[in-house]
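STRUCTURE REQUEST FORM
Protein name: Cytochrome c domain-containing protein
Source organism: Rhodococcus rhodnii LMG 5362
Requested output: structure tokens
Priority: standard
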Amino acid sequence: MDPVRNPYAPGAGQRPPELAGREKQLESFEVVLERVARGRPERSAVLTGLRGVGKTVLLNQMRSAAISRGWGTGKIEARPEQELRRPLSSALHMAIREIAPAHRDPDRVEQFLGVLKAFALRATADKGMRERWQPGIDAPAVKGRADSGDIEIDLVELLLDASSLARDVGVGIAIFIDEMQDLGPADVSAICGACHELSQDAAPLIVVGAGLPHLPAVLSASKSYSERLFRYHRIDRLDRESADRALIAPALREDVKFAQDALDALYDKADGYPYFVQAYGKATWDVAAGSPVTAEDVRVGAPDAEEELAVGFFGSRYERATPAEREYMRAMADLSGDDGPVATSAIAKELGRKPASLSPARDGLIKKGLIYSAERGSIGFTVPHFGRYLRSQHD
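Status: completed
Returned output:
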């Protein structure tokens, strides 16, 4: 079939042509938006799941829902070793610019931008560097608010001031944080503390985070009350009906149908993971002669999808690991069965090493986002089917 008409879109954070199976999370977020708009207290939200399940896509869809209501929004992607101040300042600046035209008091907006600039400038401890770097906020810095240097104090003051501006306008502000597990401990604590204050004040400002499965544990380690601060959504693989719909609906818009055996074969290959659904759907479309798409088309197209996944989805991550880290992951793969969590003690036994001697490799893989601490004493791959991929490299 015509590859130009191919509707499937495998890509990092790229919205699929049919966002299937996420209705529950989107409906829940609509309730949050409506409650905040009515001045009712509401919790911020956290999305967790493995890579490839569509957390970033869902985060972007939630942001679109907030924008459609006239909210101010901003988004950041957390990175290891990067402090929160600069990216958060840029995200909040964007959000305020979206709602500022509706505010009746330009001086109030100008005052807040001065506070925001002072907050941003505290990102650099060295005075000389601070004087050279400017956050792009067209207002003089205001001293004495959100500029103490203590991120927890400053963030509370900054977000409460931002929420006050939004309340004046009758809308809300939503800050979206992707890869939230990569925030430093002090920044995680500050986010939790700020969300606590915002909820107590019924402030029209929420934080929506997305991250790997161990993100709730990261938040809990920072603040013991974090489980009550956020509404948690575990984003998992699609059920059969949703996976089929993700394939069928875009194809029907191109007057193409799938035979039932093709859908069976595609679900077996993709295992319900949204990224894999798109990858196998795209490859199958490109080799199919016409409608209906058959199981034979899936069989012929599957190697192309698997080659692309091996290079772009699996291989690129594997290449980031050191030799010691690769050895650790191979042992995980040999022990994991169907990619399930593995006891760290079992990995040490498999490699004939003492557990303590493997800590650097384990910690390095966690920092690179390749594995996560599933629970005390066990770890798992952050990427679905990664163990299967590694075992195939042994063959």
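Reviewer notes: Strands lie at 44-48, 72-77, 173-178, 205-211, 230-234, 342-343, 371-375, 378-381. The chain is about 55% helix and 10% strand.
Form closed.
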